[in-house]
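Methods, example record. To illustrate the input and output format used throughout this study, we show the complete record for tRNA-uridine 2-sulfurtransferase. The sequence lines were provided to the predictor; the line carrying structure tokens was produced by it.
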Amino acid sequence: CNREIKFDVFMDIALDLGADFVATGHYCQKTTTVEDGKEIHHLLGGADANKDQSYFLCQVSQKQLARTLFPIGHLQKSEVREIAASQDLITAGKKDSQGLCFIGKVRLPDFLQQQLQPKAGDIVEIDAQTSREKMLELVTTDGKVDENEWVSLSRKRKYHPSEGKVVGKHQGAHYFTRGQRKGLAVGGTPEPLFVIETDVNTNTIYVGQGKQHPGLYRKGLFVTQDEMHWIREDLELEIGSTMEVMARIRYRQTLDKATLHRVEGGLYVIFEKDQSAISPGQFVAWYREHECLGSGVIA
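The corresponding predicted structure is encoded as:
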């Protein structure tokens, strides 16, 4: 699990039962160094790049890492299957799980529809030019950035129904996320429609044509002070400081170059390249080489 409180509960139960360590099946690795007489635990990505699950553990603490083991993190998935087959385990040939582990075999859309009441609303298409005009890129002549630009690059775009055209109906904005393509049930457009923004207050979904629609992309995001978490507490940035990192905003995404900017009230993460479907509520995790240094919930 990726929420620290859940990991805390799981760890506490194990320790209360007399366990010295908790071993997990995550494709992660851990090393430990000593600096000034103090142990520092490092969360590293799994050896199998296609199965690296360090993103899921981006909220763990030093205390938790000290008691955690990753026995398969140094292996490729194919090697794990071979070991399982040699031990006649029935899971050796089992397909990889893609569902929600805590609710069983059910599709996410079906789960949401079971839990949330439908509410009809409009699907509004926004053209690419209108979306570009929403981008307030404040590029300085000397190439330097300031906080105004970080705010601009990180700001969620706000659309109004009058800026586009109604192309369909949906059963609840709360069922959709940025970047989603399936489930819109709207056809007849030259390119597929993607969700570029949702407004749960007005129950409106805004869509754009094609995966390159500018409404899907932006370079920055913001993490509030309360949602900022450093696995490497010794590297936490002070206000006014910056750090060059590699970062990702979703599982299995390729790490991209980014810069952390620590300010009053939180942290800006500004990517070198545009990022698709940055979504509030999801995690951004930052790395140095293969080590996950910290993470935060996208505001």
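Annotations derived from this record:
The longest helix spans residues 4-16.
Helices lie at 4-16, 62-66, 77-86, 108-115, 128-134, 147-154.
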